[in-house]
């Protein structure tokens, strides 16, 4: 599964 | 940030404010599905749990607070202040049929099994179907107040603009989040027939009535 990334969207 | 996502967030904010003002000014929540509003409050609560420990930007934090505060204020208006005008006879969608599949799906398909990520994934799936009780209610009553149709249009437009934002980000930042994109497309498709009726009727000054 994809690596984590900062959720910068609302 | 890009213009599509900014416009999307503005549409989202407009939708929430329009709904709040409609209920407050008319002192009535007739035609509004309280169940959908419960689901939206749950979407924001589960998605913005990181509000207190992940700082992305002032804009991001301010908007999260506004969405959370306004969704709970709307619930208060519907279920407390103007409870007498709540049309519970027509707001009968069984939201457990939405909640349970979203919980199961977020355990099956998620980027990560950390609590915050699982809550985020759940909120993405739930948001895709949160409008169903409202659309179901409109189909049962066969009509919606014009202001309610503006609310629904803005709400549908917000996620449609987010799809454009994801296309833009894919080509400019090679950023893509499959879960958000698939759920966003499903969410927008659910508004499709409403969009058609809104554009062919409301924009021509007619009442929003479903074909009998």
From TrEMBL, chain B:
<feature type="transmembrane region" description="Helical">
    <location>
        <begin position="150"/>
        <end position="168"/>
    </location>
</feature>
<dbReference type="GO" id="GO:0006621">
    <property type="term" value="P:protein retention in ER lumen"/>
</dbReference>
<keyword id="KW-0472">Membrane</keyword>
<feature type="transmembrane region" description="Helical">
    <location>
        <begin position="119"/>
        <end position="138"/>
    </location>
</feature>
<keyword id="KW-0812">Transmembrane</keyword>
<feature type="transmembrane region" description="Helical">
    <location>
        <begin position="62"/>
        <end position="80"/>
    </location>
</feature>
<feature type="transmembrane region" description="Helical">
    <location>
        <begin position="92"/>
        <end position="113"/>
    </location>
</feature>
<protein>
    <recommendedName>
        <fullName>ER lumen protein-retaining receptor</fullName>
    </recommendedName>
</protein>
<comment type="similarity">
    <text>Belongs to the ERD2 family.</text>
</comment>
<keyword id="KW-0675">Receptor</keyword>
<keyword id="KW-0256">Endoplasmic reticulum</keyword>
<dbReference type="GO" id="GO:0005789">
    <property type="term" value="C:endoplasmic reticulum membrane"/>
</dbReference>
<dbReference type="InterPro" id="IPR000133">
    <property type="entry name" value="ER_ret_rcpt"/>
</dbReference>
<feature type="transmembrane region" description="Helical">
    <location>
        <begin position="174"/>
        <end position="199"/>
    </location>
</feature>
<keyword id="KW-0931">ER-Golgi transport</keyword>
<keyword id="KW-0653">Protein transport</keyword>
<feature type="transmembrane region" description="Helical">
    <location>
        <begin position="6"/>
        <end position="24"/>
    </location>
</feature>
<dbReference type="GO" id="GO:0016192">
    <property type="term" value="P:vesicle-mediated transport"/>
</dbReference>
<keyword id="KW-0813">Transport</keyword>
<dbReference type="Pfam" id="PF00810">
    <property type="entry name" value="ER_lumen_recept"/>
</dbReference>
<dbReference type="GO" id="GO:0046923">
    <property type="term" value="F:ER retention sequence binding"/>
</dbReference>
<keyword id="KW-1133">Transmembrane helix</keyword>
<dbReference type="GO" id="GO:0015031">
    <property type="term" value="P:protein transport"/>
</dbReference>
């Amino acid at each position: 599964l994809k690596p984590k990334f900062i959720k910068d969207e609302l | 940030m890009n213009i599509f996502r900014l416009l999307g967030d503005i549409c989202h904010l407009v939708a929430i404010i329009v709904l709040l003002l409609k209920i407050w000014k008319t002192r009535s929540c007739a035609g509004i599905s309280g169940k959908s509003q419960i689901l939206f409050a749950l979407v924001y609560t589960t998605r913005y749990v990181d509000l207190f420990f992940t700082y992305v930007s002032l804009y991001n934090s301010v908007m999260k607070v506004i969405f959370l505060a306004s969704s709970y204020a709307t619930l208060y208006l519907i279920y407390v202040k103007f409870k007498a005008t709540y049309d519970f006879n027509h707001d009968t969608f069984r939201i457990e049929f939405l909640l349970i599949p979203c919980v199961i799906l977020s355990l099956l398909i998620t980027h990560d099994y950390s609590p915050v990520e699982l809550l985020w994934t759940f909120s993405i799936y739930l948001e895709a179907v949160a409008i169903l009780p409202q659309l179901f209610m409109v189909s049962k009553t066969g009509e919606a107040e014009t202001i309610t149709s503006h609310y629904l249009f803005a709400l549908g437009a917000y996620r449609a603009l987010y799809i454009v934002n994801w296309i833009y980000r894919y080509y400019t930042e090679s950023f893509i989040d499959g879960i958000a994109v698939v759920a966003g497309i499903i969410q927008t498709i659910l508004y499709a027939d409403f969009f058609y009726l809104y554009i062919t009727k409301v924009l021509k000054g007619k009442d929003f009535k479903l074909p009998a």
